[in-house]
Design brief:
The structure is a single chain. This protein is about 20% helix and about 35% strand. The protein contains 4 helices and 6 strands. By secondary structure, the protein is an alpha+beta fold. The protein has one domain: Thiol Ester Dehydrase, Chain A, CATH 3.10.129. Strands 1, 2, 3, 4, 5 and 6 form a 6-stranded antiparallel beta sheet that branches. It comes from Halorubrum kocurii JCM 14978. Pfam families: MaoC_dehydratas (PF01575). This is MaoC domain protein dehydratase. InterPro entries: HotDog_dom_sf, MaoC-like_dom, MCH/BMMD.
Length: about 160
């Protein structure tokens, strides 16, 4: 199990996630269809051409979902009880079809639950568009709070 138990998170630790994804037009179209989001800025090339962006944008919730998904193997895979919240979501730069996204999580807080059986961990997650010159562009950031299992005690 690659995920971390509560005790394995350290406040201030930055975790670079290995999973990356290049977003296709089909990815964006399917996400919009599944979520019933018919915003023409995501789906209508003619409409989007007339905007300040000049082309269709990838749905911001898809970008956020990719960042969460990319973070799971190194953080909560198999050790999470529940996602508790996503807060302070921002999309400072656009994402377009063909962009490749990577993510980084920084542990900002952790505390045991009142019964001491589990732990609450908050991470600041950042999604970046990979660019050729190596100066990747921040495209989404948010705080993710999870309820995490504690490491099993011997004999459990």
């Amino acid at each position: 199990m690659p995920g971390r138990y509560y005790e394995e998170f350290a406040v201030g630790e930055a975790i670079e996630h290995a999973t990356r994804r290049t977003i296709s037009e089909a990815d964006n179209q399917r996400f919009c269809d599944m979520t019933m989001n018919q915003q023409p800025l995501h789906l209508d090339a003619d409409f989007a051409e007339g905007t300040q962006f000049g082309e269709r944008l990838v749905n911001g919730l898809y970008t956020m979902s990719l960042a969460v998904g990319a973070s799971i193997p190194e953080t909560t895979d198999g050790t999470i009880v529940a996602n508790l919240s996503y807060d302070a979501v921002e999309h400072p730069n656009p994402v377009f079809h063909g962009d490749t996204i990577r993510a980084r999580s920084t542990v900002t807080d952790k505390r045991e639950t009142s019964d001491g059986e589990r732990g609450v961990v908050t991470m600041h997650v950042e999604a970046f568009k990979i660019v050729e010159d190596g100066d990747d562009v921040l495209v989404c950031e948010f705080d993710r709070t999870v309820l995490s299992e504690k490491r099993p005690r011997d004999g459990e």
